[in-house]
Design goal:
about 20% helix; 7 helices; alpha+beta; five-stranded antiparallel sheet; globular; single chain
Length: about 290
C-alpha cells in the first residue's frame, strides 16, 4: 500500500515563551515492510536543525527557539510504501521455554529490552498474566496471540483516562487507558516472562479503512503505539493490542525504545511564565498500492 502521512504538533503558550528546546524522533526507517519514498520535517518558525542517532537507532532532529514566541509548529510529512510482513513461522512454532533458552546465548544484543523502566515495571500483576498466557509449553504464536487478545478484551480504550505521567500500576488497577498504556502493559508481561520486547511509536491508517475484523482501527488520529517482540533468529514481530491484531500494511513504524519516553515523537522544554497547550493531528491516507 502507498500512504501519505501528515503529522502536526503545535505548541501554543499563554504568555510568550522565552526559549524552547525540542528533539523530534520523526524519521521513519526503511525496513522489510516499509519503504520511505519522501520525507521532510518542517518547523514554524523556520529554525536550524542538528541531527544525531540515539542508542536505539532512531534518527533525532534537535532544534531550539531562543527568541520570544507564542506558537511553535512541527510538521512531519512522509510518503511511505508498505508491504505485509512475512512472519517467521518456524520461530513462532517454538515453545516459549525453548525461545528463552535460545536468547540466553545472545543476551548482550537485546539486554535493554528485558529490563524494567520507570514507565514499564515488571513483576506485580504482570506475573500472573505471564504464567497464564506465556506458559513455558505454549508456542510463541499461541502465547503472543493470546496475550494480545487478553489485553484488548480486558482493558477499555478511554481517551483522556491517562497521560504521560500515569503510573502503570494505576492502568492495571483501573484497566483502562490508551494505546500507550496497552503497549506498556504488554511490554511488562513479556519482559516478566523473559521475552525481549520493545515499544514502537508510529502511525496507522486513518478512516475509512477497517481492520481485518471489520472494526475501524483505533488510534489513527494521533501517533499510535504497539509492541515488537524478539523471536529466535533475532527477528522482531509486531503486535497491536489496541486493535487486537498482528501488525500489517496499515502500520508505519517511526521510532523504537524501551517505552514511550524513549520513543516519544516530539519532546522538550520551554522557559516562560505561562502555561502551554499542545495539539497533535495525524492523517495517514491511502493513495495507492505498492509497486510490484
Amino acid at each position: 500500500m502507498l500512504f501519505e502521512i501528515r503529522h502536526t504538533t503545535e505548541y501554543r503558550y499563554a504568555e510568550p515563551a522565552i526559549e524552547a528546546y525540542l528533539e523530534a524522533r520523526l524519521t521513519p526507517p526503511n525496513t522489510a515492510t516499509q519503504r520511505i519514498i519522501e520525507h521532510s520535517i518542517e518547523i514554524e518558525p523556520e529554525l536550524p536543525t542538528s541531527t544525531y542517532t540515539d542508542v536505539f537507532g532512531n534518527p533525532v532532529s534537535f532544534f531550539s527557539q531562543t527568541l520570544r514566541h507564542r506558537r511553535l509548529v512541527v510538521r512531519n510529512l512522509a510518503r511511505v510504501e508498505t508491504r505485509a510482513p512475512e512472519l517467521p513461522e518456524a520461530a513462532l512454532a517454538l515453545p516459549i521455554a525453548e525461545a528463552r533458552q535460545v536468547f540466553s546465548s545472545a543476551l548482550l544484543d537485546y539486554y535493554d529490552y528485558l529490563l524494567p523502566t520507570d514507565a514499564v515495571p515488571t513483576g506485580g500483576p504482570a506475573t500472573s498474566w505471564a504464567r497464564k498466557y506465556l506458559a513455558a509449553g505454549k508456542t510463541l504464536r499461541d502465547g503472543l496471540g493470546a496475550l494480545n487478545t487478553a489485553i484488548y478484551e480486558k482493558f477499555s480504550y478511554v481517551p483522556g483516562a491517562t497521560d504521560n505521567s500515569t503510573p502503570l500500576r494505576r492502568v492495571w488497577k483501573e484497566q483502562r487507558g490508551v494505546c500507550q498504556d496497552y503497549a506498556h502493559v504488554m511490554l511488562s508481561v513479556l519482559r516478566t516472562a523473559g521475552l525481549p520486547a520493545r515499544y514502537v511509536c508510529g502511525y496507522i491508517e486513518t478512516s475509512p479503512p477497517r481492520s481485518a475484523s471489520g472494526r475501524r482501527l483505533v488510534g489513527s488520529v494521533a501517533t499510535h503505539a504497539w509492541v515488537e517482540v524478539l523471536v529466535p533468529g533475532l527477528t522482531w514481530v509486531a503486535l497491536d493490542p489496541t486493535n487486537n491484531q498482528w501488525c500489517a500494511e496499515q502500520h508505519v513504524a517511526v521510532s523504537f525504545g524501551r517505552d514511550s519516553r524513549d520513543a516519544a515523537p516530539v519532546r522538550g522544554t520551554f522557559k516562560g511564565t505561562g502555561g502551554q497547550v499542545m495539539k497533535v493531528r495525524v492523517n495517514m491516507k491511502r493513495v495507492g498500492w505498492a509497486s510490484a
